[in-house]
Amino acid sequence: RMVAAVLAGLSLLSLLTCGYLAWGSRRGGAGDAPGNLLGEEPAAGAPRSQPHIIFILADDQGFRDVGYHGSEIRTPTLDKLAAEGVKLENYYVQPMCTPSRSQLITGKYQIHTGLQHSIIRPTQPNCLPLDNVTLPQKLKEVGYSTHMVGKWHLGFYRRECMPTQRGFDSFFGSLLGSGDYYTHFKCDSPGICGYDLYENDNAAWDHDNGIYSTQMYTQKVQQILASHNPRKPIFLYIAYQAVHSPLQAPGRYFEHYRSINNINRRRYAAMLACLDEAINNVTLALRKYGYYENSIIIYSSDNGGQPMAGGSNWPLRGSKGTYWEGGIRAVGFVHSPLLKNKGSVCKELVHITDWFPTLITLAEGQIDEDIQLDGYDVWETISEGRRSPRVDILHNIDPIYTKAKNGSWAAGYGIWNTAIQSAIRVNHWKLLTGNPGYSDWVPPQAFSNAGPNRWHNERVSWSAGKTVWLFNITADPYERVDLSARHPEVVKQLLRRLSQFNKTAVPVRYPPKDPRSNPKLNGGVWGPWFKEDEKKKKSDKSKGANKQKKGKNKKKAN
Question: In whole angstroms, what is the distance from residue 243 CA to residue 309 CA?
């Protein structure tokens, strides 16, 4: 009770401020390279107003899985880039792949795109709705060259859904959420298998040389930077497949991790080591080809780590796919010579939707008044240490996921049906309803032989019928003390806020699978299968059939 009282008291304090660490002068290390590796500097007088934007999105990287968060996995490149930039230590994403990517590219919450539920499956006739303006489209309007390398996972059932149709000048990567790192094949279910590596709108069979995808994607990035004119602005979206399962890595990256007993953790460590080296090579290329001094590098994970697949979110609670902090609080930082407060730590509230308006503003673009964004421009918050314009985050409302059998309107004070999975953050307070997902804390010892006993001590015994939780995240970032019973008025306020958000939600898009999606019907390749012509033919046939029926009915009447 005393602990709960202390936590409640702390909620009155305003702690969400940017703290700064003096890292001193910039030192050499991983990621550094001479500025004149080509023997020349960018031409004098080159335009410098619009920065080059490099957004690097890692896949399934756990909150603890970076050196500066205390990981045993070495990440010298990430550590150095973050130390010389601004670490985002109150930064949130979504708990799964598609939701985070959709919010990054539109600046909108899932409830405003219809992608509230789960992810886009390979066999679903679904994609990011075509009426949503995307980040690369807005950047193209102001003269940016836009390129994507890596994982798309925003749908592809029709050609209009492909990356090259959503604002990217070029695309090299995969359309699905996962696949083999070497062969680029993916089976969605037994017998439903296909090839998933694309260059622009076609299967990239010519690039199928058995190269590990992290290295292959990095080579492509280097080629793009080498062929582009650094005096013209570029947006480069690098969505690495790593460190998502399947757990695969080249043998040499296992050298430093033989002592890790847990095989999944060992493989995961090797994958992350390879990713860290890849980002070093990207940074070297930015310097080599004259982009670095006018660049903004943003690094982010798309969701929390999956402990069963080697990831660690310790000391946060939960994992990927949940609305506990371990599923949604991410590794993130900004590195740029253009930052005013380099070497700082930002503890202001930042969400993945914020990159859309932030980057468009930096690029001197315009945000249309009719676009109802959920993101905020947070550049001054990050670069100068100002207060964030954001005071709340709707983590999600999923009306389809109602697995909390004991949820009810009564439990939600008649304001909200607590059977619905939802989560919201307002200032220091975080509210969860329904079934938030796997809720254990998984300590580092869980990955060793000594793990089980300690791990079992962190297991949560659910209170029968519980469907509402309230935490003061500022004072209790590890979600150990539920304050819902102590502060019913705060619970009601946040439930009302959920209800307000829900009034603006669009219908959920989650269609059943389409048998026409089978790669066997498409040359063995995952790719667009929905043809607009077929739809027209069907509608024409149905119209013709209706005319015949009407004619027969007239004869009968006569």
Answer: 9
14 has pLDDT over 80: no
Question: Which of 18, 69, 97, 351 is flagged as catalytic?
Answer: 97
**Degrees, nearest 5: CA angle 376-238-276:** 105
The pLDDT of residue 420: 96
Question: Looking at residue 497, which CATH number applies to its domain?
Answer: 3.30.1120.10
Same domain? For 377 and 229 the reply is: yes
Same domain for 139 and 70, yes or no, is: yes
Q: Which of 332, 355, 390 is the last residue of a domain?
A: 390
Partners of 170 in the β-ladder: 147
The active-site residue, picked from 69, 147, 153, 228, is 153
Identify whether 110 is part of a domain. Answer: yes
Domain that holds residue 341: 52-390
| 97 among known catalytic residues | yes
Say whether pLDDT at 545 is over 80: no
Question: pLDDT-based confidence at 460, cuts 50/70/90?
Answer: low
Task: Report the number of distinct structural domains present in the chain.
Answer: 2
* Residue 317: DSSP 8-state: S
Percent of the chain's residues with pLDDT above 90: 79
- Read off the pLDDT band of 461 (50, 70, 90): low
274 is catalytic: no
Q: Are strands 145-151 and 170-174 parallel, antiparallel or unpaired?
A: parallel
